[in-house]
Amino acid sequence: MNRKTFYGWWITFAAFCTFGIAVGIPYYSMPFFYDYYEKSPADGGFGWSRPDITLGFPLAALATLWVGPLLVHRFSPRKMILIGTAATALAMAGFGLMGGGLAPYYGLWLIYLVGYIFSGPIPHQVIISHWFRKKRGVAMGVAYLGVGVFAAASTKYIAKPLVEQFGFHTALQVMGGLMLLAWPIAIWVMKDKPSEIGQFPDGTPDSGGYTAPPPQSFHYLLRQSSFWLLVIGSFCSIGSIGSINQHMKLIFKDQGFTDQKLLNSAFADALFCISVSSIAGRLFIGWLADRFPKKYVMTITYVLVAITIPLLLLVRPPETPYLFAILFGFGMGADYMLIPLMAAEQFGAATLARAMAIILPTDTIGQTWFPYGVSLLRQHFGDYSVALGAVFGLAVIGALAVGLLPKHGRQDETFHLQDPKRTPASR
Questions:
Q1: CATH superfamily ID and name for 8-195+215-426
Q2: Which of 90, 130, 280, 282 has the most CB atoms around it within 10 Å of its CB?
């Protein structure tokens, strides 16, 4: 099927929706329920400690390390989104139906992580990279914009009113059902590659002499120092971001937000502000990444994330930390998006699925185990000051690692066969 109008922007809009549904709603709203789990059974909770509550995510991350490298490159992006959102729906509904046992809770996190791997960043990064080369940064920014939009709505306009009206059990079940809204979009709107409908990346009239290079092997990636720098940098920065996201509401509680309604409102307002700011970060940084070396853009973004972390300790009730939320959200939104852009530049879009199949599970380890470490530090020292100092140090290490990346990667996305002067050796 041939189309006069470039279909890639419809793909981008579809990714905006499916990415937002699959990640923006469940991931960013999950910490909203942590203090309910912490309540005593007499108050309607489970009486779990903070290490108990935050251990489920990292245990699941370890148990699913094999999923990315062994499975994700075997499925088309659309199939991955369908499988992943179904698993996430099952997990969210299970969280709403569970009792006070920790074993089922940890098992449900395992199902959620499988859903996240299949329907989260990887399929959306791959599908955008197939449809765009020159405008990949902007398109990726728009796709990630969906995460920010749905995350902004997830707590303030979905979780909070549902909990207040029906209780947290029903709220979780309803939010699980929302995952299935991604299905009709993935089935009827998305196309994995432009060749499926007789088009070419960026809407060009033909391939321009471009021939996609074959994907590099896992062995090749593991021998590249730039790959390990990207792994370490993203691992540390995503770990610091995950620590803040998972603990922000509990930090507010320790800082004096003891009234439940005030705590819910402060967290919902802060997360809304972070999510809206992340939208601006994704768009602006995506635009910059198409015009300036991604290494410099990524390093500045990682530094921004680091310097905002100490601001969280300055919040006191009834104030909402708007300065922290705006700066942190801007950096956070760009942070996630830059990783696949850098991987595609360094190793080629054809190798992106393999690179991210290692990077995403590794980042998930940092994103999940560091929050658990923060729980242990807070439990040991009695407050979050030492824990947030450790998170700050982690973010700085991430920025330093990215700063050591080479300025340019393989650049095979701009290699055209009709230009005999531009050879692979000259790249």
A1: MFS general substrate transporter like domains (1.20.1250.20)
A2: 282
